[in-house]
Sequence to fold (433 residues):
Amino acid sequence: MRERDWENLLWNVRRGRSVLFTGPDLDAGAEPPTAALARHLGDLLRDEGRPVLGQSLPAVAQQLEDDPRFGRSDLEREVARFHEHVPALASDAVEARIATLPFPLVVTTDQGPRLGEALRASGKRVEVGRYHFRGANPPVTFANDPAAPLVYHLHGIVAEPPSLVLTERDVLELLERTLAQRPGLPDAVSAHLQKRDTTFLFLGAGLRQQYLRVLLHALKINRDDRSLAVEEGGAAGGRPDDTVLFYERGKITLYDAPVAAFVQDLRQRFEASGGAVAAAPSAPAAARPRVFISYASEDAARAKRLFEGLEGAGFDTWLDKARLEGGDHWDGTIEQEIGRSDYVLVLLSRALAAKIDSYVNAEIALALKRAGHVRAPFKCLIPLQIEPGEILPDLAAFQAEPLGVADDYDADLRRLVSLLRRDYQLRQRERVS
Fold:
């Protein structure tokens, strides 16, 4: 590898500006984990007298799922069993070596817990998130801090079998969902992947798989700076294949080398260079406006999307599914959070209008009480129209704002963020004067 590439990589890694993107075969050994799992699934088919028609894991998994003697449940169960027998993490494992490096965000197609375990073993506070291409995607906490990294599993996690991307059909559906952003990645993650100063280190990510090119395109990762990919097994004859040319055009240098040896070299160079560069002292963080979101349970997905958008814009946002923890007293916690919020946003929909006897009505009553403490012209309670319909009589005195009702959600969200920021700044100025 060119020395200039090493210098560029170390410059960004030392400053916590590099996102790590890994695949499931980090520590391939004699047989990569994906090949071992494909062989195991193939053995199940052969035991039933079925010829195995493919070699890749998605192809074999698809055949097993489609076979009359098996099904999706069999596939998920066998994958879970396979991960249960993965060897314990050794101190010299690739994951353990990676864990000492300052990556604030790790995006992985691995579905097991080894990387998160390695990061925790190194003393870091780890947040784990996952993409569920067929289900709900809860908000994640991304601190952009190498000491508290987020590990985000793009192909689901084995602890939630329905989230797993296993078959060829799953891969196609994943691409369809990510391209359409239904559901999209958490806003904070998407924004970080697209930042102009974000670079990427791809380790064993499988960039020679064509679908990954489409996936990276769908994620709109930053390509204004050079990034590096390490894969073992190049094109015959030493000539660049189409995949290499594709990534070179996208400012991603593809380096053919064993991942384990590369990581060892990287760690040695990282330590020799002086390790992580301490972040410049920053001014105390300004207080963030506190926002409470009230909604009918049928509108949970839209409430989550709003939560992620406001969190990404810097608001301290409260959503019951994201903030309530086991053992919390629901009534007391909700009343406390509304009472300390600067703004209460109520999602207006047909589902909310139909709630004759529901807890959301109690939230609205508390919001009205909270709004009574805020004098004009400052705002507190803001109804958000997410579907056409009449405003609730209790909220008729408050100006409603649109949020996606005319299919321009992003523009509506920007206007809402601007409205909240402007009002909050006026409040701050009033307090100072």
In short: The chain has a mean pLDDT of 86. The first strand starts at residue 18 and ends at 22. The radius of gyration is 25 Å.
